[in-house]
Amino acid sequence: MSAPAPFFDREGPRWFSIPAHRPFVDDLARGLLNTLEPLGPEALPRATILTPTRRGARALADAFLAVTGGRALLLPQIRPLGDLDEGEPPFEPGDLVLDLPPAISSRRRRFELARLVVDHGDKLSFEPGPVQALELAKALADFLDSCQIEEIAFEDKLDGLADGDLAEHWQVSARFLKAVLRAWPERLEALSLIDVSERRVKLLRALERQWRDHPPSEVLVAAGSTGTAPATADLLAVIAAAPRGAVVLPGLDEDLADSAWAKIEDTPGEQHPQGAMKRLLDRAGVSRADVRPWVPEVDSRGRWRRRIINEALRPAEATADWLAQIAALRAEAPGLDPIAEGLSGLSVIAARAEEEAAGACALLLREALEDPERTAALVTPDQTLARRVMTRLRRWGVIPDSSAGAPLAAAGAAILALHLARLVEEPLNPVRLLALAKHPLVLAEDETPAAALLERKGLRGAAPGSKTVLRARLREFPEALALCDRVLAAIDHAAAPYRDNLARPCHAAQALVEALEGLVAPNRLWAGGAGECLGALMAALIQDGEPLPDASPQAFADILDRLVNEETVRVGGATHPRLRILGAIEARLVRADRLVLAGLEEGVWPRGAPIDPFLSRPMRKRLGLPPPERRVGLTAHDFAQAASAPDVVLVHCERRGGAPAVESRWLWRLKTLAAGAGLALPRRDDVLDWVRAMDAPDPYAPIKRPEPRPPVEDRPRKMAVTRIEALTRDPYAVWARDILKLYPLERPDEPVEARARGTAIHAAFEAFAERFPDAVPSNAAAVFEQLYVDALVAAGMPPTALAREKALAREAALWVADWERHRRATARRVVVEAEGRLELSINGRPFTLTAKADRIEPTADGTAHILDYKTGAAPSQKQVDTGFSPQLTLTAAILMNGGFPDLGAPAPGDLTYVRVTGRRPAGEEQVRALAGGESEEAARKAIDGLVKLIARYDDPDEPYRSRVAPQFVKEHPGDYAHLARVFEWSTSGDDGEGE
User: Fold this and answer.
1) For residues 836 and 894, is the Cβ–Cβ distance under 8 A?
2) Strand 579-582's sheet: what is its strand order?
3) Residue pair 645/595 in contact by the 8 Å Cβ criterion
4) pLDDT at position 334, please?
5) How far lies 189's CA from each of 157, 186, 194, 204, in Å?
6) Which residues of the chain have pLDDT under 50?
């Protein structure tokens, strides 16, 4: 490419543009080198180049090295416009510094604003808590930034802001804003600080005045900025008019028809990609014709791509003549089809969902790296998608240079801090206690066995009701107890600042940090980028969190959670030199050989117009703030800039978050424009085929239902009546539990309500019968109620559920008292928890059947009623008759055969389930067989069925199948379904109904 003439030879103002399809920083660096190097070795380092961002400054420095082939070079002074400081160039020592107070930090500003929110909460329709105050403070900070960047003096415009027909909540917002925003300057003055945005604007204004009154004599170039802020726009105008100054715009559309250019105004124009530059040029008093190209046009295909993108994104009011514009474009190049030429190198991928889109993006980037001379970049505003792509790239050991970073909330130190903060609220939450005790930062290598014991013996099952209960569980395991005490001491230390369940967040943060450092050595806790980021956040809470209102443990944990989730940790370390992941703004200046633009769905790219919680659109207009659509126009410009690159793939999802997604308006416009020209955007369906092939599972080959066949000598010869029921319904469970001795582990914080209710009702009946073996006392209901409640507490019923259970216990006790009086009238005595056994010979081998009866009532007529307590649904008559629930009938067989030594061999009486719930009805009897011949026949039938069942399993070829009675799965899902891999074979056509 030929070098441009020295730009400062022209009369000012000097405005230039680099077309969207050109690599911006490369062309800028090449143009500056070609212009300044002939002037001597000192010309380039004495020049000053202003870029929009720090990343843009780094990209320009890299571009200088690239265009010189890596030879040694003294670079110009490259400074980011958005981050100027008076202590650095282009400011001279001593300039401007005495009049500007230091800026308030962003976190302290938010905390101070939260204090003002609480102090003026009476102006709102609700009383804001600490977390709500923090959120409102963020919205207030955004509002202040908008006003300060736009240099709007809002103080005199707050009166009457919500006059008229606005809804009442807008009037509430106006009153609140008026109170808070008038108090804020006073607070800043008391602190001798200034807002960051206001200070930046003052710096830019001071620099503008300095350069206007004393123009710099050296080369001065502002590149890549669109001048969206008034102070920036005016500074750019001064730079353009400087003796050796110039402004280089990114992607000004010089080919857009004048009629369409004129329509880029007001609110519709805010959404146009050229809207920001039109406002900049209008403010500077420069026409579009006065803007010259930085480099001469030589790339035909790139020119047509840029023309097509700009045509597709022209104002909606100017799209009626698209067909005429297509014809005009084709008339400009009779020898080729400019539309087809412009679409060459542009392709589209329509992924089914985000995960598939991430896979496609990763493959496209990896494909580009096959050429050792090519670079590639992913451009997306969706940080979640960017992180997914990074994860996919690690499959090939590729780590890109990513601006998305990693969420602090996913870092180990942050997770540890959040767990500890939540444990202050719930100090005995078993899941969080385990997460804390087994955290890699907390657990030493030699403490792994102790952590396993803490889990198994202390925290699995019902949650411990107190620290005393937890320590008692661990009394026989000193290593686990020591680990538990260390964790509990940290929780106690973190909870120390709270008085009456409230503490200042700064004090709570201080105690939390001390507790963390008591668990983890500081050099490990605060190590790395994530540790530094968390440390800075906690330091800000401690040092600047004094204004925050008092918070409960839950509110402080919510505050910390909210702040942590807003932080991003920049990913460092070795990254691939030819691969980048960029945000949309950063991609404005950075270019790669292949660009993948992803997240092209409405609401993602572009994002919807932001919702202001304080200001309606009329209120914003009255204040002089720009409409919310302006942000859409800026992102449209970033999209147009990136989409004009030579090799671009546009990626969008058909579904996002499980719901249908709408493709971006820009992509839709491109497709419509191409269709109007009789063409279609090229698709890369081959990439989707690759992604699906890479992630496709092996052919579906479900396993068969397991059929273990243990040796006959290992099969049980002694079983309780309840295990016979399991053998009837799910033989696999008998194989796992009774043969392999695999017992299910309870989960930490196991819900115990149903189990505790059953345990407690049995314990209460047993204790009542032992205390009152004969007559029922007059206060039987009160006694039984207390026994039941005490048993619920002993069984681990959580306090939150106990209040409800007490009410049910009262109703149940009233029913039980009347029921006991009725039963005692006919029973000679009441026998509870009696143990019985029956010896049988089956296939010539002994077999023992055992039972433990809840209650047996011998009567004067020589029979004995058998009762079983239930708090849930009792087995149906059909289940008892068919042998699927043989507990009562087999117990009756043991009884009639003299298996209960203290009772003789009475005939079985009624076989009854007693269901006690405390609801309506509070209790009921459900008789499954009446005394006499019916119960005796049921007992004999049960024994016959047992003999046949055990005889069948004496056959070594008889397997212990899983779920031979699937009709009971919903009522009794079982403990071994995961071991039997039920969900793999039960959906394959073999549903287990073979028995």
Assistant:
1) yes
2) 346-351, 648-653, 594-598, 376-379, 579-582, 401-402
3) yes
4) 81
5) 21, 5, 8, 21
6) 1-4, 93, 988-995
